[in-house]
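hey can u run this one w/ pyridoxal-5'-phosphate bound, need the structure tokens asap thx
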Amino acid sequence: MKLYSTNSPERTVDFKEAVFNSMPQDKGLYMPVEIPKLDAGFIDKIESCSLKEIAYEVAKNLLQDAIPDADLKAIIDDAINFPAPVVKLDGSTYVLELFHGPSLAFKDFGARFMSRVMGYFMEDGERTLNVLVATSGDTGGAVALGFLGVPNTQVTILYPKGKVSPIQELQLTTNGQNIRAVEIDGTFDDCQALVKLAFTDWELNEKFRLTSANSINIARLIPQTFYYFNAYAQLKREGKADVVFSVPSGNFGNIGAGLLAWKMGLPVKRFIAATNVNDTVPHFFKSGFYEPRPSVATLSNAMDVGNPSNWVRIMQLFEHDLEGVKKIVSAASYTDEQTREAVETIFEKYQYVVCPHTAIAWLAIEDYRKTSGDDLSAAVFLSTAHPCKFPDIYEGEIAKQVEIPAQVKELEGKPKQATGLKADFQVFKEFLMKA
Ligand SMILES: *Cc1c(COP(=O)(O)O)cnc(C)c1O
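ok here u go:
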């Protein structure tokens, strides 16, 4: 597999380099030079395949010879070890549950696959890989649990004190082994700034082999294509073919993966990018102007992104032609008030509890139904996190229905291990240097 940078298409690297670098020197993003179509025979019989079988076929198609078959199979077997069921709510409305992994969010797909690919590419005697990551909640949990126990890796997670939910904090701070949590007295932006400074500090880079493992890493994007194919397979089993996917979007990695799947030959009628009031992309669709803005805090905080880092990948897939994007993608944005209402409506209608991010994807489906006049044979909204991660927004009957999964119950008695630090780079650097 060869990849190019969106900023300098003529220079290509192999998969291993793209995985360890995350971002090219020129600050572009890595994209596959070739996106081969899957064999039509495979799509024809996809309904007879398991998630792992689908994942292998799709990964093989993209990675080509970057990882030998048997090793790729082993990586997928280990990484994709939880289901991604499509749950039917009514005759034409479905929810794709992506929260059955260890951190209860769809980011487990990306983080688990990436950590295992990194572990695989590390040769004997290579220097320990030091993963630094800043989190506002979900990314840190997925990365921590993804790398937990992966040999030759050490993960440092920075999170803002008092600004993650209790379950998120448990996932960040109870791991031990090769995972350590740093509780920063500041905001998520402070955490991110500290990580960025660390990457530019020569002394730290001399002492450690630093990597960021963030959401732009191509090894996080690839495994997210698997569940789109797998959702299609499940719907095909039900006799549904015309599928619309609505994707709660922040950095646009999830929907980017869906579009990559579509480029590989997945039959999809339409994608809907659903955002909160951080509506840079929906605004772009309306006005034709791409105007990134500082992010605004919302209930769906994992989508509080003012300048979605994966957007350029999507534009690249369509050769920077917005009209081309619009042929297959719609976009819509919603307020916190609408989000709360949707959580309630979905519960009343279906006795089903969604997280605030997921509620936004449902809203976009409902609107699309109304405005397009299309009665949609299979509208699928992606559920990106388990509701128990966002307990503050539920009241009364709904709150009672939010179950705590076994993965979380296991963590509940464990002691919190985190180093508290000021939001100060010198302090953070000293902490890293001593370790
Ligand atoms: C990260 C996240 C999103 C946004 O996904 P992107 O790939 O950044 O668009 C949505 N919902 C939840 C729960 C998340 O953790």
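Residues 105, 107, 138, 215, 248-254, 302-303, 357, 384-385 surround pyridoxal-5'-phosphate (CB under 6 Å). anyway lmk if its weird
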